[in-house]
Amino acid sequence: MLKFILKKLALMIPMLLVISLVVFVGLRSTGIDPITFMVPPEVQSQSPEIVEQLREELGLNKPLIVQYFNWLGDILHGNLGLTNKGEDIAGIIATRLPYTLELSVYAMLFSAVIGIGIGIISAIRQNGIIDYIGRVLAVLGQAVPQFLVGILVIWIFSIKMGIFPSGNRVSPDATNAFVDAFMHLFLPVLTLTIGMVAVLMRYARNTMLDVLNSDYIKTARSKGIPEWKVYMKHGFRNAMKPVLVILMFRIPALIGGSVVIESVFSYPGIGTTMTNAITNMDYNLVLVITLIIAAVMLICSFMVDVCNALLDPRVRLGE
Amino acid sequence: MSETKPLSIKEQNKSAASSLLKKNIRKFLRNKLAVFGLVVIVVMTVACIAAMAMGIDYSTPNPTIMKAAPDAAHLFGTDTIGRDLLARVLYGGCYSIFIGVFCAVMSSVIGAVLGAIAGYFGGKADMIIVRISEVFQAFPQLVLVMMLVAILKQRSMGNMLFVFVITGWMTTFRMVRNEFMSLKGETYVKVCEAFGMSKANVMFKQILPNVMTPIIVSTTTNVAYFILQEASLSFIGLGVADSTPTWGNILNAAKSIQVVQNQWWIWVFPGLAISLFVLAINFFGDGLRDVLDAKQQ
């Protein structure tokens, strides 16, 4: 098992390198010159030698592969580089990333507990009242686009009721940091959770049903094992495999979702930074954020593999 | 006494299959929600296609009736530059539904084929495909879209479909691969192999049917997923070009908080259209799953 984990971990480093190379080359081959965003147009036309000098300093006239290794060297030395406006990228990430992490972790936590819980109750009491209400809520929550949920939530809680702020993360006049965080996080977390719960509930129900209809559950029952033990030990454990995969697979969707939701709530997280960086064609910033997101996703994929191996020995032995 | 001719095995199989189909249709029809879903899907699709076939005007701005509330002449009202919203929602439906169905089917086919190969053969083939899937997975869809937009200098429908298909096959792939890895150890697979059945036959005719239920459920869910994804991308301004009225592009107007507060019809109607259609697909998918799941019969 340890060997399995180490092997998987060792594979992540070349993966990250490949990804960074592909993204780097992809973004550089777009044919958009970062110099145009750094130097005002009048300087560009009047003194091309300054532009050339800057190009030289930034290493933009070297071959692409040399540029990549220079950039990679800088990253490994902890130098994330500067944005087109000359701001320190490390500083931006350090303030923005924790905001997004807060948002995603809370949404993930709440949706996992609520979604899997309701899904399993629905499967055990199939066609019961909770199953029916759960299914309707699940499909409703899944059917309405997340940004529309965000808009509705703003409309209800901010415009009509005036309880929560409609955007941002920190109030300038906040007295209690905890209360302030709660007020600003509530609506975006609620919006993200609604979307996640819907999906998880559906999958948890479907896979649990599959498991409960299988022969070994009947065998377990016929052995006289208490019903709750059948559900928890025999059913739940086997149903969790695909559900865990889906949960991990929802993380990209969660990140994608938070990009959109951050834009709805003007929440100053990594998603908003990313959207702005894309519209401003800010290569360096897009590159760094992409790599961070790629690393997060690789870790998730690693966790899926480990969970699968723990739950089903056939997967491990098949490697 | 009527004369009964002994049926050949082929004919017996045929009649068994048709009675199973009849049984399944009957079972499906008993599921009210699934039937409701199917009816809504058919009605909305037909309405959208009919509107497009009739060529109703969706694109001419009329400055005299900007932001008009719904009335008899414009059932859904008009948008911020005076275009009829009903026409736009119907036209948008054609594009959005097409994006959803095309991307879901294509990504499922790619995911299932690659998943079958990776899961069945294991070893090197598996490792390479899994690595490729992880590279794709590690790309945030937004960056890929943005890169394509920047490289191709246009936000066309083709680019959109390409990006969705290429970034959407991994969930099905993972699922099919895991199922194949478990199922290839089963006795019936070993028996087929021992009889010298070709690998392709074992994979696609023997194992794949056992994985079909989750594939079909995930394909139906994906139609909805891609429609929603298109809407989100268009909402933040990175979707199909603004001239194409997809449901997402129509909703883009709701980015302005003034529109949200004062012109409810501009976001409520396209929002309802998306939600209703996605809802219908999900009900239909659920019904389909209940019918197709052999273990419940």
Write the layout of secondary structure elements.
The complex is a heterodimer of chains A (319) and B (297).
Chain A (H helix, E strand, L loop, with lengths): L1 H27 L6 H4 L2 H6 L1 H11 L5 H13 L12 H36 L4 H15 L2 H15 L16 H36 L2 H8 L4 H38 L5 H10 L3 H29 L1 H6 L1
Chain B lengths: L8 H22 L1 H23 L30 H37 L1 H16 L2 H12 L4 H12 L1 H14 L3 H8 L4 H37 L11 H5 L5 H6 L1 H29 L5
Helix pairs in contact in B: 1-12, 2-3, 2-12, 3-4, 3-6, 3-7, 3-9, 3-12, 5-6, 7-9, 8-9, 9-12
| Low-pLDDT stretches of chain A | none
Counted by DSSP, the helix tally of chain B is 12
Multimeric status of the protein: heterodimer
Please tally the helical runs of chain A, counting DSSP H or I stretches of 4 or more residues.
14
Summarize the structure.
The complex is a heterodimer of chains A (319) and B (297). With 319 residues, chain A is mostly helical. In chain A, 80% of the residues lie in helices and 0% in strands.
Structure write-up:
The complex is a heterodimer of chains A (319) and B (297). By secondary structure, chain A is an all-alpha fold. Chain A has helices spanning 2-28, 35-38, 41-46, 48-58, 64-76, 89-124, 129-143, 146-160, 177-212, 215-222, 227-264, 270-279, 283-311, 313-318. The radius of gyration of chain A is 24 Å and the shape is globular. Chain A starts with a helix and ends with a helix. The model of chain A has no long low-confidence stretch (mean pLDDT 80). By secondary structure, chain B is mostly helical. In chain B, α3 (85-121) runs parallel beside α12. The longest helix of chain B is centred in the middle third of the chain and has 37 residues, at 85-121. Chain B is flat and about 75 Å long. The chains are: A mainly alpha (319), B mainly alpha (297). Chains A and B meet through α1, α7, α8, α9 and α11 of A and α4, α5, α7, α9 and α11 of B.
